[in-house]
Every structure is written in structure tokens, then in C-alpha cells.
Specification:
Chains A, B: It comes from Pedobacter petrophilus. The structure is a homodimer. By secondary structure, chain A is an alpha+beta fold. Chain A has helices at residues 2-5, 16-23, 80-85, 106-115, 117-143, 146-156, 158-163, 166-173, 177-185, and strands at 26-31, 36-38, 46-52, 55-60, 65-71, 76-77, 92-95, 99-105. The interface between A and B is large, with 36 and 36 residues. The structure holds a DNA duplex.
DNA sequence: TTCATTTTTTAACAAATGTAAAAGGTGGGC
DNA sequence: GCCCACCTTTTACATTTGTTAAAAAATGAA
């Protein structure tokens, strides 16, 4: 397992010693397209790193589903509220393709955080990177119109644009599917 | 300084030993209303904890300012991109009242993160809490209408509603001042 | 292929929000 | 107290986006 982790981007900042510690607790898993890996309103005990495939996080509203996150190879994938507050989360995570993932129990990860200072700081940086990306998206919702957000998305994530249904991209961008269709049609 | 930190909420999860370590590097400071404590496009070298007063973070657009964060007593206050990536940030932070703050150099804080595992995990939790709050706001922008976002804001932050100019609250909620005025008028 | 299902686009209309300008309100400094 | 600057509300109109429904296009399984 150690040999495998070594080549994954997110682990590249770690020393060999730290990586060996982590590798004792991880498992490679695969799930088919359509799997709901994380369920809303449940405490989900695993943390995943996506190695191949695409996933989305969404919440259910009264008459709509809002997709608010996409993951591709290299993304970390977990129930925010389970991970952070040990409480049931608000998001479902669905695999949009067959996926290969690295799996680690939250309990094991927390033990590592409290036993190994290098891993604790690695975990800190993961949260910080997610934070800055999320805040940028929030700000963009105010500054940029829907058309510009769509352009940015196509520029930064051309592969998601090809692989993910437009209805999911529409809600990710904060518009209805009809509006996204209008934007794409250039009207 | 240690005696002072002891009574601040954000430090309450720390052991005495860790708090003593931190207290060696912090300084209590005060700044008047109107001070721009953090400047966009600069690497800002300090991390602050707000003890009294109110602050806002905003970015400048072409013909508007977007406020995307408010801080009250207990909030942490720093340039995200300086702190996380050691690069110039995108936000200005303005004090909306006279403020008392605890100040610590980022360089010192990072040294503490790498020297003390308890402080490293404390820093991890700070980022995680900001992350979950920011993601919730992003999701609420899709699920809730402007009127409901305003209601939530008044319920959760009645004191901000009293102390902060409505034009700042409007952009925080993602609407124009005219729309906010309409919502408040019940129309 | 063909059929059934799902996704995407289009259309017509309704609702929400934005823009610009004016009027009213508020508070600080002289 | 008065004036000035700034903040908030109001009005009228323009624009964007949403809603609903239907048609067209794409997808996938037998």
C-alpha cells in the first residue's frame, strides 16, 4: 500500500515515515457508478481519496437537488459534519462513474492526527485548501453573472464539463437547467 | 498575557502548556473604527483574534464592494491567501468599530504548528470550522431566497443587524441594497 | 436496430432582482 | 443648532432568471 500512496499527489508533501504510518490504515476500494458513498443525515465513518472517476456532493431540497461539489482524481471526499463535528452530515455523495478510492476510517485518521504532528499539519492544510476554494466560489456568486461562472467552469474543469450531466452543473453554478441552456445557446 | 488568553473562548480547548507556548508570541492591540487591518493584494503577516468590536472582509469589484464575512468577538481574522498559501490575498478587512484584538505573527504561528501537535490540531479545527460555515452559506445561496437569507441572518446575528450598515449586509446576503430594503419593507 | 428512458433545449409567461435617480433620514463636526 | 455627508428607502422601469410545459435530442438496454 505504501508504494501506491507514494504516487498520489495529496501525499507527496509527506515524509516516508508519515506515509508509512498512514499506509497501515488505508484500503484501496472500488465502487460502481451510481453508488451513494456518503449519505445525508448519517454519521459516515470513512474518509476517501478519489483515485479515478468523478463524484458529486448534493443536498436534497423540497423539489430540487443542489449539487455543490464535484470531485475528480486527487479530491478528498467525506461527510463534512461527520468529519468535523462527529454529527450527521447534510450532503450525499454519489459516484458519477465507476471509481477507485483510498479509504481510511475517520477514527484512525484522528488517531494519526493526535499521534503524528506531520500528519496533523497535513490534515490542517487539507481543510485550509478546501476553505479557500469554497470561499472563492461564494465570492464569485456575488461578483460574477451566471454566464461568466459557466465560462470559468468550462475553462477550469473542461473534463467535468464533458463527463457530468448539465443538470448537475447547472445547480453547481447556482442556476436552473433552463438558464444554463440559455447561456450555452448564447442567448 | 496567559491569564488573558485563558478566558477567550477559542483557546478554551487548549491545555495550559499549549496556551503558555502561544502566550509567549501574542500581543494585545487596539485599533480605531475605520482601520483597514488587512489589505488586498498584499501578503499580510499577522493573524488576529477579535476580542471586541466588529469587522468585515470585502473585495473590490469594478463598481461595487462585496462584503463576504463579518467578525464579532471571538472571530479569527486573517488574510486567507497569506495564511494558507503565503501569497497576496483578495480581501480587505475593515474595522467597523473600535476593536481590541489579539495579534500573532503568522511566522510564529506556523512555528508553533510545527513544534506542538496540540496547537497543530487546534489550527486544523479552526480551518475546519470556517470551512463548514462557508460551505453552508454557499449552499444556502442556492436553496434559500433572499428574504429567507435575511431572516436567518437577523435570527442568528441580531447584534450585527444593529451594528452594521445595511449596505454591507445586503452584499453579504448577495443582493443589492434596494432589494434588501424591499425585503425589510415586506414587499 | 428499436424502444423506452433520460437529458437537453426551446418557448411563453411570471416573478424576482437590478439600475438609476430622487427623496427622506441620520449623525458628526463646526 | 445647522449643515454636510452618508445611509436608507422609494419609485419607475429594465433585465435576468425562474416556472411550466412540451418538443427535440441523446442515451442505453434488449
Amino acid at each position: 500500500m505504501y508504494q501506491q500512496l507514494k504516487h498520489i499527489d495529496i501525499f507527496k508533501s509527506l515524509s516516508n515515515d508519515a506515509l508509512i504510518e498512514i499506509s497501515k490504515h488505508v484500503l484501496g476500494v472500488t465502487y460502481p457508478k451510481g453508488t451513494i458513498l456518503i449519505h445525508a443525515d448519517k454519521i459516515e465513518p470513512y474518509f476517501y481519496i478519489l483515485q479515478s472517476g468523478v463524484a458529486r456532493a448534493y443536498s436534497d431540497g423540497e423539489n430540487q437537488q443542489i449539487t455543490f461539489w464535484f470531485g475528480e482524481s486527487g479530491s478528498v471526499l467525506f461527510s463534512f459534519n461527520s468529519y468535523i463535528n462527529n454529527k450527521p452530515g447534510y450532503e450525499n455523495i454519489e459516484l458519477l462513474e465507476d471509481c477507485a478510492l483510498i479509504q481510511i476510517k475517520l477514527a484512525d485518521l484522528f488517531n494519526l492526527y493526535h499521534a503524528n504532528i506531520e500528519i496533523a499539519n497535513w490534515g490542517r492544510k487539507i481543510a485550509e485548501q478546501e476553505l479557500i476554494a469554497t470561499e472563492r466560489r461564494l465570492i464569485d456568486r456575488s461578483f460574477k453573472g451566471a454566464a461568466e461562472r459557466y465560462q470559468d467552469f468550462s475553462n477550469h474543469s473542461p473534463s467535468l464539463l464533458k463527463r457530468v450531466a448539465l443538470k448537475h452543473i447547472a445547480s453547481y453554478l447556482g442556476v436552473t437547467q433552463v438558464t444554463l441552456s440559455r447561456i450555452r445557446g448564447g442567448k
